[in-house]
Amino acid sequence: MVTLRKIFLLYLFLTYSFSLIAQRHIRSEVHFNKASVYVGEPIEVSLSIYSSTWFTEGVNPGNIKINGAYTVYFRSLSTSKKFDNRLYSGVTFFFNVFPYNEEDVEFPSLEFIVETPNEGGYVGIKRKVKTRAKTIVVKPIPPGINKDSWMVSSSVRVYDSWKGDLSKVKVGDVLERNITIKVGGTISELITDIEWDTINNVSLYPKRSSLKNNKSKMAISAERVDGTRYLFEKEGEITIPEIVITWWNPRYSKMYKRVLKKRVINVETNPDLGMLETVRKNLENTVVTELDKKFKFEIFGRSLKTFLSFFIVCLIGVFLVFKIGKWSFIKARINRELYRKSEAYFFQLFVKERDIKLKQQRLYKWIDQLNLEEPSLACFIGEFGTDLLVLNYKKNLVNSRNTNFIHQFNKEWKLSRENFLKTEKNYKDENSDWVNP
User: Could you tell me how far CA 255 lies from the centroid of its own chain?
Assistant: First the structure.
């Protein structure tokens, strides 16, 4: 006699068995290219997802944000690997992680959905993937090195430019200096700040820094521009001290430096000293201090609150204009032209066609619009077709006169097209915001 205890034990056994099958069907791995890194040194993280069959939809692990580090997504790569003497197909995602504190960083456990068919099947089934968290070991900055000037890079280029004639300077004149630092293998957020030294008889008025990141599929570089204005207040010989930029090259485990040499400027007298105070006040009104950076934000000369209010009012106005339909004619005309060139237009022509011969022609014209690896009917049905469509297509291969699957299964064609559009969407939805603090 079957008891409740036996039924419960059978339920546990089946649940465990299905869990093992799912674990064997999908595999995931996270690898680092280094055992440990310094603050600001990139570590390459490869996230791999494998299936014993294949993926019917694109794999998208989503945005990855890590506490204490910046994350940069580079590329994905199709791959394969053997597990238990069985070949799995997969995809590997490559990231660079830049720790910015002297503390270990955790690459988090990720949960996302993939779609793969069962072994022996061809219809994709949604499955949850969960990766394991992994710790990135962060080494402290080597002793004897100033933490404020610490920077990690594979290459550094430094140069400055001046606005004004350095050979003809008199009291009350202003010279503007910009220092550009271009680095490889890091991001702009980790480029060291320029420290402007105090100079006797000269007032300095720093400008807001400019940051820029440049990323390809294989590498990253960055640029930072710092600027200041020198106001000369007394005549005599003025020495602009040298500026030293240091960085750690992880490839050679060595510190390097670049030096912007000092400059000596002879400041001449100016009989019109009354203008000195006017110049000073003008510079003070335009200077960007660190306090301004944190608590003051202006756009086109307006405060953030004023600008946002104006922006919201503009958005409401634009919405009302489009709601009323003043631009509907232009919009409809543009949309009509674009629609007649789209895949959706050719599909509608195919679905609505009643003539059997013309319907077959419109089918192949629609297939030509799809971005398939092989622009053929067999390729489309094999990858995206419903069960009923695949079955009738196989009957057509046996009996060439059987074209029922073309003109009698509009619903199945629509479902198959939806499968195709879902796959296309996932392949196109790659991470756009690639620097995530």
Answer: 30
